Amino acid sequence: MVTSPFILPDWPAPPSVHSLCTTRHGGVSTSPYTSFNLGQHVGDDPATVEANRQRLIALASLPEPPRWLTQVHANKVIASQNWSTGTHADGLFSCTDHHVCSILTADCLPILLCNTQGTEVCALHAGWRSLAQNIIAKACQHFKTDMTQLMAWLGPAIGPQHFEVGPDVYQAFCDHSDIAHLAFKQQDKQHYLADLYQLARQHLTQLGITAIYGGSYCTYQHDTQFFSYRRQGVTGRMASLIWLA
After folding, report:
1. Tell me, what CATH number does 144's domain have?
2. Which residues contact 51 (CB under 8 A, 6 or more apart)?
3. Which of 28, 42, 98, 150 is deepest in the core (most CB within 10 A)?
């Protein structure tokens, strides 16, 4: 059986907005990176990763190579015009045709944003640290569009049944929100199960973004489809891409 290397977001984005998320299928990497690893920072052979990246360009018919970031689990979002190789950031915004915004994940939450006019897009690497530092609000500062005219797609991330965290993560959100506790299920005094999808939805709706799609995958549980750092430790990375054309 041939397994698709891509997930296409299930959202009503305008025709000028193109987006996809890769899976672990379709590449040439060997274990533990089998097979479509796109991360150059995880210990995989650099030439193999580059071959996978070239496959991505060809299979997805990308207009340009993706603009890869050096992700640091913070809240910096940059415009694609200011991007250069090695740029440290966790989000990339574009209002320029053919600039492919890309982020890498293997449990953290990929968030894709666009406006209903189809003239502005953004890709975010939203792990718990970035979410707690309000990376979504930082991204929205780049949009000229009113927040009510934006839509979001939540890509594959670790699900709420498997993302165990400590009190530090709980407090990082609950100290600054009256509703964040709803995204946590206490296991004992030192452990909670956290719902990244719900935390992201809370942040989005508080900003006025109510058109929210996706959020149904679990990278930890669906081991044949996704890489998961929490499950495997040494593993590959998927890419979530969005661009205008």
Report:
1. 3.60.140.10
2. 27, 28
3. 150
